[in-house]
Write a structure and sequence with these properties.
With about 375 residues, this protein is of the alpha/beta class. It has a domain of about 250 residues: Rossmann fold. Helix content is about 35%, strand content about 20%. The strands form 4 sheets. The protein has a 9-stranded mixed β-sheet, sandwiched between helices. The radius of gyration is 24 Å and the shape is globular.
């Protein structure tokens, strides 16, 4: 009995010493928080819940994890909401008052709050809404007359909330750096026309990689691959190529009009070198006939052109070889179906797809040319 009591005494003493040691329990910081920003207060509203469900299925596949998936969702006729999606449930965190989700200030505030409440070693961002690359409001459908209709129009990049839109520069301002001053690991655009070199250049200080489409992105975008491939986005080195390749294969295996897709993985670490190479080529720029270049928008006019198709026409063979070397460091994966929306008006064949698009100045669109000259990309290469 004496030995038994002595043993208990030492156990209590050991526990007391541990409690008095002053050591704080180790805090485990998750590898990644992914933020999905679903700006669907427009005619894409019906897709918002479909995407949330697909993301939920993806988290179920992942199972229990320290990582976070936080979704900001704004739909028509509903208040914006913030959700946390786990393997087991979708948890409502906040229901906001009605707000403009295409506001740079609002987006920045929401992302900062998420980063504060769900800290991680790294962050990723998924963006869903309407988009038209660098183009000013109304220019996609009316590049000759947009300035008269929208005299205050500025470059539109991504997000549409009612009559409100966000510019490329506003998007860049909306995305904060991490507490350590690091960039986001990736931004995935589940939108149209965001694989433009103009967009990539604007976001080079805020993210390491972009996943985007040169052409439109057909509904329902990434919904069919989220369940199996969301897990790769949480890997220490996110499997963006695998994700993009799965998206392409999913659409390329369809038939008819649905067999329509373009996708790119863009590494922004080397985009300055690419810009410097193009700037050298642009010094000897000659006028080009745009009808011969690969384009990616379904309109009677052409606004998004394959970057390599254009550069090859204005560069010497030596310059083009130097350009291709730099491009290979920037575009780490690209794929395109042979045709885009066959059977629809202004469908087109895809014979050239380097993974980045560009605008080419056109005499018919003086206002659009002037707007392009104000982009940071144009200023960098001219």
């Amino acid at each position: 009995m004496k030995h038994y009591l002595l043993s208990i005494f030492f156990v209590i003493l050991f526990i007391s010493c541990k409690e008095d040691s002053g050591l704080e329990p180790e805090i485990v910081i998750p590898q990644r928080t992914i933020i999905a920003y679903l700006c669907g207060d427009n005619n894409l509203s019906s897709e918002v819940n479909i995407k949330i469900q697909a993301l939920q299925e993806g988290m179920q596949k992942i199972g229990e994890t320290d990582n976070h998936l936080i979704v900001y969702a704004d739909s028509r006729n509903e208040m914006p909401k913030l959700w946390k999606i786990t393997a087991d449930e979708t948890i409502l965190l906040v229901e906001y008052a009605e707000m403009n989700s295409a506001s740079s200030n609002n987006m920045n505030k929401i992302i900062r709050e998420i980063m504060n409440d769900f800290p991680a070693q790294t962050y990723g961002l998924i963006c869903f809404s309407h988009a038209s690359g660098w183009l000013p409001r109304g220019a996609l459908n009316d590049p000759a007359g947009f300035a008269a209709k929208y005299p205050e129009a500025r470059s539109r990049s991504v997000f549409e909330d009612g009559e409100n839109e966000m510019t490329i520069s506003e998007l860049e301002n909306a995305i904060p750096l991490t507490e350590n001053g690091d960039k986001f690991e990736f931004i995935i655009f589940e939108t149209c026309y965001m694989a433009g070199v103009e967009v990539a250049w604007e976001l080079r200080e805020k993210t390491k990689y972009i996943v985007a489409s040169s052409a439109e992105m057909l509904s329902n975008g990434f919904v069919e691959i989220y369940p199996e491939h969301l897990t790769g986005l949480f890997a220490p080195q996110p499997n963006l190529k695998t994700f993009a390749e799965a998206h392409f294969n999913n659409w390329n295996n369809k038939t008819g009009t649905s067999r329509s897709a373009t996708i790119s993985v863009i590494n922004l670490a080397s985009i300055t070198e690419l810009a410097n190479t193009i700037k050298t080529i642009q010094i000897n720029r000659i006028e080009c006939e745009i009808a011969f270049f690969q384009h990616f928008n379904r309109n009677s006019h052409r606004l998004f052109f394959d970057l390599s198709d254009y550069i090859q026409s204005i560069a010497t063979p030596e310059q083009f070889s130097a350009y291709q070397r730099e491009l290979s460091h920037v575009v780490t994966y690209q794929a395109a179906t042979p045709r885009f929306m066959p059977g629809y008006t202004f469908s087109f064949n895809i014979r050239s797809h380097c993974g980045l698009t560009t605008y080419i100045r056109q005499n018919a669109f003086p206002d659009l040319n002037a707007a392009y000259d104000e982009t940071n990309w144009a200023k960098a290469i001219l």
